[in-house]
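Q: Hi! First time doing this. I have a protein sequence and I read that you can turn it into a structure. Is that right? Here it is:
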Amino acid sequence: MTTIITESGWTTKEIEISQQILNKAYQRETETLVAQVQHQINNMTDIAQLWQVHDLLSAKRYDLDGKYDARESMLIFTFAQLLKEGWISLEELHGLDQAKLAKVSSLSKI
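A: Yes, that's right. Below is the predicted 3D structure, encoded as structure tokens:
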């Protein structure tokens, strides 16, 4: 089997793995957000709490739209942030080049 390496140094297999990891992390984070919002709504007693939910959702939408950057040139940084925030584990990145894993690990500690 021929390994194709893209211009940015990612193999086609690494890109495939990356997409799977990003999808899992996004699912985890959005499921957590839904549960958090449901809890807040179920315990809502006044209009101020409704606006707090609105503000939370607005901020999270902005955050999520920028966080899951799947461009090859940004994957190291995306994975480092997701690792730092606990949405992925280093073990889930198995299959990526060791140098990439080391960069992700190092950046996640900053």
